[in-house]
Write a structure and sequence with these properties.
heterodimer, A: alpha+beta, Immunoglobulin-like, Cytochrome Bc1 Complex, Chain D, domain 2, B: Cytochrome C Oxidase, Chain A, 16 helices, globular, binds copper (II) ion
Chain lengths: 308, 563
């Protein structure tokens, strides 16, 4: 992975150089201020060292101009760094349209990955190079954090909701994956690797082995087995609303609120239906809290997303 | 000794000093004297410092190699948790205010005691009860949640001893609140005649700002910990998503206190540094009022930045940006302090004695701590650095490099006053130098480790991180040796009969006008203040020094307490 005494992590994503450039900027600024202060401290304590016991320095006047100057300079510099940092963060926050989706579940103490095509892995994540990848993160138990230092990205994996993160790897190779949020006894064992592959190699890898059932297919199967279909009929005649075309659209609730149906909305509609009741329907949907694993839930949601 | 110290001739009717005024365990455990309560805190915070230090030693030993060899994973997790709990709640937070503040603050403003002496004693008992519960939790089974007690791990997946430790921290919180209330009232109500707000030493301003944070912040963490305990014991869903709670809510509440708590730890240290620099440079602190108000600015802004601990949680992007922005603003008052301290040395008369070694060490290390804080405030960089060793190194620079250095500066500065004894200056310098270099060797490599991505709270780690970890452990060994040296010569000084004079440093300030150690009631008569703080410079040679005056004999305490 790297030699024995690295000082600097590998740059393997489009964010890496941006973060590194901010880091160097900060290092330079810090070095400047640190050296300046150290210089004056040493200079003054030497130059003005006490030469006799009864030496008394002259009083000096406080200078408002001085105080204002050395308040404003750090202020301007800080704001500049703030803006640069916020700018990069802005790009980190929103995944581009063409990103492919991969689903990750963290649980004490392993990472479980599902690709939409059905391929699954544990403590490993295979991704294609030069292709934006969006990860949807869920936790079965406590908070974890998905961290890949070579990509300079990290996101907490929080139970009870989906977090997402994205990156674009720029270099084929293997990189370390850590759980960065303390999650219990084997926290430091919750590690793995991210394998970045050339695009065609990745396609080969995806199609090799496994059951062949895609996430959407698995979700459709679950939808039937769990009896969702009995209420949510394609015809719209069931006791529950028709679910095609819900994802990504606005839903009106009995409270009068209008919400956009994103992954988190679908998630809570299934686990805690009573919290958001669709207008025109009775709150009769049973809760599925505790009956579905995070992975199954992800499959059902991808199925719902696939319904046009 | 200086010519103009005007060390007012020892008052005619000498009262016994506070150490000799009465004897026996009871006279200590039931004392209402702020000085004795300060000593009680000194003893107990030292005990917790040693306990926390032993945990730290075991942690560094374990990290010497990438594999698990010294302790197993669950033990390791308990070690870093208890290291954090002992050090933060039972050493760093109380050390400067409850030890040095308790002892020095009333004297510096010319008061006989704090406003509410009984409440002061009560605060020490809260500390003791809290500390005992936390210790019992450690001894019985240990707590492995990290000092941050993040839910839902702490409320659902962790051991039964968590609520016990939480109760300990909860009760201990009241000791902070009570100390804060006492200091605020004392500063408002019990200043000696002539001690106007702008004649207050900066040590007082710093404690004033700290008290505000203690009073406003501590109740929030108390409520939070109580909610965790409720969820843990009764299964009420507050933070646990399975019960309909929100784990991130905990982090908001926890950091709403715990970020300001960082300033509870460091701001009193700023006060100490101002006193020490003024004395050993024989100069009024440059930009006195800017330094004073920057403490208040920090106290205020400190309440608005908690979200910078949560950039990776998925909190809204705009919230993150606001928190980042406000965090950068704090850089300004902090920088102002450092510039003013440095400027104080200009055309001064610097004498490098032991407290000054620590003060200089403080500026250097705290500066690095502060600058690396900017890395973490820069959101995009924080995403990479969050929960890595970079953060560990950053807060140790602020807390140990900053707060502990300031505490040691203050302890050495006021040791002759507190104990009436002087310590070995030579050994003191050896200790200070060992601590400085040991500290740097311990924590500088951790910045590199953090940028490489090594997560914190890791019991085993990839091999490529070993060399840096070995350096860190080597540094910790030197650091430990430095602390040991300090323990030994300060301890020995108590048994050697080297009496301290009332004002061994030629310092200004009311505490130096009275005997060492002070008499039971501090001042034989209420002092009347006629000068600014730090009247060190030339034109102050006139005999009109702030001094103990015999006129206006009054006992402030009786006027103002329980009225
Ligand atoms: Cu973890
Ligand atoms: Cu903070």
């Amino acid at each position: 992975m790297s030699d024995n005494f690295p000082l600097f992590p590998e740059q393997a994503s489009t964010f890496a150089w941006q973060v590194d450039y901010l880091y160097f900027l900060l290092l330079a600024l810090s070095a400047f201020f640190a050296v300046a202060i150290f210089f004056f401290l040493v200079l003054f304590s030497f130059k003005y060292r006490r030469r006799s016991e009864d030496e008394r320095p002259r009083p000096s006047e406080d200078s408002i101009a001085m105080e204002v100057t050395w308040s404003i300079i750090p202020l301007i510099l800080s704001l500049a760094v703030f803006a640069l940092g916020a700018g990069v963060f802005f790009r980190m926050y929103r995944a581009p349209e063409n990103a492919i989706d991969i689903y990750v579940v963290g649980k004490q103490w392993m990472w479980k990955v599902q690709h939409p095509e059905g391929k699954r892995e544990i403590n490993e994540l295979h991704v294609p190079v030069n292709q934006p990848v969006r990860l949807t993160l869920a936790s079965e138990d406590v908070i974890h954090a998905f961290s890949v230092p070579a990509f300079r990205i990290k996101r907490d994996v929080v139970p009870g909701r989906y977090n997402t993160m994205w990156f674009e790897a720029t270099k084929a190779g293997e990189y370390r994956l850590f759980c960065a949020e303390y999650c219990g006894t084997q926290h430091s064992g919750m590690t793995g690797r991210v394998v970045v592959m050339e695009q065609d190699e990745f396609q080969n890898w995806l199609s090799g082995g496994a059951s062949g059932e895609t996430m959407v297919e698995a979700g459709a199967r679950q939808f039937q087995q769990l009896g969702c279909e009995t209420c949510h009929k394609e015809s719209g005649q069931g006791r529950g609303p028709k679910l095609s075309g819900v994802y990504g659209h606005t839903v009106e609730l009995t409270t009068g609120q209008e919400v956009v149906a994103d992954e988190d909305y679908l998630r809570s509609s299934i686990l805690d239906p009573g919290s958001q009741v669709v207008v025109g329907y009775k709150p009769i949907m049973p809760t599925f809290q505790g009956q579905l694993s995070e992975e199954t839930l992800m499959q059902i949601i991808s199925y719902l997303q696939s319904l046009e | 000794m200086t010519t103009d110290t005007a060390v007012t001739t020892p008052p005619p009717a000498r009262t016994e000093n506070y150490l000799r005024s009465s004897y026996g365990i009871k006279s200590w455990l039931l004392t209402l004297d702020h000085k004795r309560i300060g000593i009680l805190y000194l003893v107990m915070t030292t005990v917790f410092f040693v306990i926390g230090g032993v945990f730290a030693t075991l942690i560094r030993l374990e990290l010497l190699t990438p594999q698990a060899d010294v302790v197993e994973a669950s033990t390791y997790n308990k070690l870093f948790t208890m290291h954090g709990v002992a050090m933060i709640f039972f050493f760093l937070i109380p050390a400067v205010p409850a030890v040095l503040g308790n002892f020095i603050l009333p004297i510096q403003i010319g008061a006989r005691d704090v406003a509410f002496p009984k409440i002061n004693l009560l605060s020490w008992y809260c500390f003791m009860v809290g500390g005992t519960l936390a210790t019992v939790a450690i001894v019985m089974g240990g707590v492995d949640t990290g000092w941050t007690f993040y839910t839902p791990y702490s409320s659902t997946y962790s051991s039964f001893y968590v609520p016990l430790a939480l109760t300990g921290v909860f009760i201990n919180g009241f000791s902070s609140i009570l100390t804060g209330v006492n200091f605020l009232t004392t500063v408002h109500k019990m200043r000696a005649p002539g001690m106007t707000w702008f004649r207050l030493p900066l040590f007082i301003w710093a404690h004033y700002a700290t008290s505000i944070i203690m009073i406003l912040g501590t109740p929030v963490v108390a409520i939070t910990l109580l909610l965790v305990a409720l969820e843990n014991v009764f299964g009420i869903g507050i933070f646990n998503p399975d019960l309909g709670g929100d784990p991130i809510l905990f982090q908001h509440m926890f950091w709403f206190y715990s970020h300001p708590a960082v300033y509870i730890m460091i701001v009193p240290g700023f006060g100490v540094i101002s006193e020490v620099i003024a004395c050993f440079a024989r100069k009024r602190i440059y930009g006195y009022s800017f330094v004073a108000f920057s403490s208040l600015a920090i106290a205020f802004l400190g309440f608005l930045v908690w979200g910078h601990h949560m950039f990776t949680t998925g909190q809204s992007m705009y919230a993150s940006m606001v928190f980042s922005f406000l965090s950068f603003l704090i850089a300004v008052p902090t920088a102002v302090k450092i510039f003013n301290w440095t400027a104080t040395l200009y055309k001064s008369s610097v004498s490098m004695e032991c407290p000054m070694y620590y003060a200089m060490g403080f500026i250097g290390l705290f500066l690095i701590g502060g600058l690396t804080g900017l890395f973490l405030a820069t959101i995009a960089v924080d995403i990479h650095l969050h929960d890595t060793y970079f953060v560990v190194a950053h807060f140790h620079f602020v807390m140990v490099g900053g707060m502990v250095m300031a505490y040691l500066a203050g302890l050495h500065f006021w040791w002759p006053k507190i104990t009436g004894r002087t310590y070995s200056e030579g050994w003191a310098k050896v200790g200070a130098v060992l601590i400085f270099f040991g500290f740097n060797l311990t924590f500088l490599p951790q910045f590199v480790l953090g940028y490489l991505g090594m997560p914190r709270r890791y019991h085993v780690y990839p091999e490529e991180f070993q060399i840096l970890n070995v350096m860190s452990t080597a540094g910790a060994t030197i650091l430990a040796a430095g602390y040991a040296v300090v323990f030994v010569y300060l301890g020995l000084s108590l048994f050697m009969n080297r009496k301290a004079s009332p004002n061994p440093w030629g310092a200004k300030g009311l505490e130096w006008e009275i005997s060492s150690p002070p008499g039971l009631h501090n001042f034989p008569a209420t002092p009347i203040v006629t000068k600014e703080a730090y009247a060190y410079e030339k034109d102050d040679v006139t005999p009109a020094d702030p001094g103990v005056s015999d006129e206006g004999l009054q006992i402030p305490q009786e006027e103002h307490t329980e009225a």
